[in-house]
Amino acid sequence: MSMHSCHADNEALLPHGGHLHAAATCYGITLADWLDLSTGINPDGWPVPAVPPSAWARLPEDDDALETAARDYYGAACVLPVAGSQAAIQALPCLRAPCRVGVLHPGYAEHAHAWRGAGHNVRRVQVEEVNDVVAQVDVLVLIHPNNPTGVCFARDQLLDWHAQLATRGGWLIVDEAFMDVTPQHSLAPFCPRPGLIVLRSLGKFFGLAGARVGFAFTDAPLRAQLQVLLGPWAVAAPSRWVATQALQDRTWQETTRQQLLAGSQRLALLLTRHGLAPHGGCALFQWVHTEQAATHHERLARYGILTRLFDQPASLRFGLPGNESDWRRLDIALADVCRTEPDRVAR
Amino acid sequence: MSMHSCHADNEALLPHGGHLHAAATCYGITLADWLDLSTGINPDGWPVPAVPPSAWARLPEDDDALETAARDYYGAACVLPVAGSQAAIQALPCLRAPCRVGVLHPGYAEHAHAWRGAGHNVRRVQVEEVNDVVAQVDVLVLIHPNNPTGVCFARDQLLDWHAQLATRGGWLIVDEAFMDVTPQHSLAPFCPRPGLIVLRSLGKFFGLAGARVGFAFTDAPLRAQLQVLLGPWAVAAPSRWVATQALQDRTWQETTRQQLLAGSQRLALLLTRHGLAPHGGCALFQWVHTEQAATHHERLARYGILTRLFDQPASLRFGLPGNESDWRRLDIALADVCRTEPDRVAR
């Protein structure tokens, strides 16, 4: 195995949602008083029970029950647990010599950052360009459904793009961080195929972003390279234990899929009523394209409501409020910010 | 910042202690029936209370209370939390162009593995050679106290070696994974100094090996490079929360230092009584150099007692038993394996 030369052009860490400590300082609002809609994380995540003391005390072991639980949940034969899909996003660019990489744009920015940092030739690809670009790149990175636009692709289309890339030794990387509500669109069950890499995470749907557990699905040789690069004990043992239980909890998963779909529709309606009709979204967020994004972001923050602001294009991503009081609070703040009326009907 | 070309020669993960699932399968002894002395982890670690649900749900934030707690505990002005010192061990070799590296031998094997894997010229250094080798290398890696030999160095000696290396742009890396019982020997309070890198971990003394929390102490430029390389959210949020509480618990720390010192002396006496007088050790393990290491390892495993076997030199490392029944069990097994008498005095 060889890792390729990595030259990081950008020394800065990228901005992300979820920086509540920073927001609290910036706006002078105490931590507990914020409604954090900046992340796309399920606000009502899997309820974590007490973790066995041995999980804290002992080194993580690869041959616990996690991989079996993951294979069952994702319907995939091959799986490598990683410390959140972020760990795989950072590692994959080190496993290819410098090449041409197309990354869906707008899209989760860590992908382009990691490939560029590792010395690859990265181009941003608009959704309508993807089909033409496949022939011009060695690696194509898609976020599916896309974050923040919510764009989805047909499974046959994805498999066709993969086949084109694989013929030339290329890779299709599909980041399925927001796929759990629509498992029928996942490419995980098609793994392992050479050149197909699917990333999943327990951060969003399961609401376990703090645990840092994700999975890479790919063929055995690349999986082995990734494992060596990431090293032993990449995932904390309590996180492995919690992830195993969450992946096995089919009842919670079914209920939660329905709840998130309903919540997402409700959020789209609420935003629309305040003149912010979403341009896209999925079960865990809605995305609003507006020239006033920065102003709205700022004014909502003064209400203690943190959203995720994007510059290009100017847009806001709203995660789901968690309870009725949070829904009401968002409604009232939007009414002021957008100079519209709050909903007078109790929901 | 630039990362340097990394070529991993060795595709395999190294063997380690703590592989209880594998041992259980190999010896046909169920998991719960093992006495695991293979790791050097405190068997009576910090008692983890219930973790706040928000720690599982939210992305880890760099600006929580962990860094302050670590600065206070380690007495060091500069700190970077990492996912166990292993994360820093893997990353540091990527932050230098190929160079000459001396690694203490015998010693924790991941250091040499990581530097060799990244294309550096690595030589093993016996403890009596270190002083001469300093002038011949760019990077010197010491484990202090050493694992598994328990060798210690005088602080002034270490600072002198660091000064020699730093003059030439070299690094002294001191892995202090087993230092917590003897904080007066730590170099952490001397950081930041250019070229001095101290690694600490919560795995051993605090008995939180599953949490994957460690720290790198070094100067600001290298800390920034490490942080970019390791990426955002490197340490799980529940692990950060638990580590913060453990680092602040001075009462537990004081009591535990005394208990571990007493336990380690007791273990040395027990081994000596069975003809296995240790050749070295520290508060968390004893190290026995014997040509019969492999046979003893195998026979103890048949008793469900897992030790850590080293090939070069042939030796065994024994961690501390956790309770009186475990001490008795080890005594009886050693009596059979070494053809000696078990202790007849109840302790």
Task: Going across the biggest sheet of chain A, name each strand in turn.
Answer: 2-8-7-6-5-3-4
Largest sheet of chain A: 7 strands, mixed
Which regions of chain A contain 5 or more consecutive residues with pLDDT less than 50? 1-12
Oligomer: homodimer
Structure report:
- Two copies of one chain form a homodimer.
- In chain A, strands 2-8-7-6-5-3-4 form a seven-stranded mixed β-sheet, sandwiched between helices.
- Chain A has helices at residues 20-27, 53-57, 66-74, 85-91, 110-117, 130-133, 155-167, 220-230, 237-248, 250-273, 293-302, 324-337, and strands at 35-36, 80-82, 100-104, 121-125, 139-143, 171-175, 196-201, 214-217, 280-282, 285-289, 305-306, 308-310, 315-319.
- The first copy, chain A, has 347 residues and is of the alpha/beta class.
- In chain A, 36% of the residues lie in helices and 15% in strands.
- At the A-B interface, helix 1, helix 2, helix 4, helix 8 and helix 9 of A face helix 1, helix 2, helix 4, helix 8 and helix 9 of B.
